[in-house]
Amino acid sequence: MATTISNIFTPAVTYPTFATLLAAAGVLGGAYTIVDPHGGARGFGLLPTKSAQPKLSPFETAYSRIHGIRNLGAGLGNFALLGYWATTNSSVAKAVVRRCLGLGLVCGTVVGLGDAMILRSYARELEASAKGDEGDEKVVKEARELAAGKSIGHAITAVVILAVGLDLILG
Predict the structure, then answer these.
(1) Any stretches that span the bilayer, and where are they (predicted)?
(2) Could you read off the pLDDT of 123-149 as tens digits, one per residue?
(3) Residue 22 CA: distances (Å) to CA of 5, 47, 128
């Protein structure tokens, strides 16, 4: 059978691929945040507003690394489920793993939507304090724009994750 575009974009191919990409994002993003907490925070959508403090405090570094290790662990857990799904010969086991991945994705939607709301709130707080003691105006504006943009990305991703998760559960 020849491979066509219609064969590639089927749920049997796209859902495991999507779940694998999410797992990889968790592992790689988590590892990156552990190694470079400041860069990990920026990639997530958070930028410190005090231009005089280019480094994170020890507290902020530790908190960022905690965030990173949790993402890494969740990504590895998803890889384990995906590996089992791909290698088991049992149709019952495949169905169970499919539903487990779906439940995990649906529950993970709370994380994505929560991240979006927190980033949106952060952007609004920066807007309100744009001329306060938070830092120089240029840095505050950059931080506000980054958080606002990333909040939209997190929300869109959460909706896609919800749709895929529901289809894995119900399909």
Answers:
(1) 12-35, 100-119, 152-170
(2) 998 887 765 555 577 888 888 899 999
(3) 22, 23, 34
Per-domain residue ranges of the chain: 5-170
- The pTM is what? 0.78
DSSP code string of the chain: ----HHHHSSHHHHHHHHHHHHHHHHHHHHHHHHH-HHHHHHHHT-----TT--SPPHHHHHHHHHHHHHHHHHHHHHHHHHHHHHH---HHHHHHHHHHHHHHHHHHHHHHHHHHHHHHHHHHHHHHTTTTTTS-HHHHHHHHHHHHHHHHHHHHHHHHHHHHHHHHHH-
Give yes or no for residue 73 having a pLDDT over 80.
yes
Say how far apart CA 39 and CA 15 lie, in whole Å. 29
Two structure tokens written together for 15: 């859902």
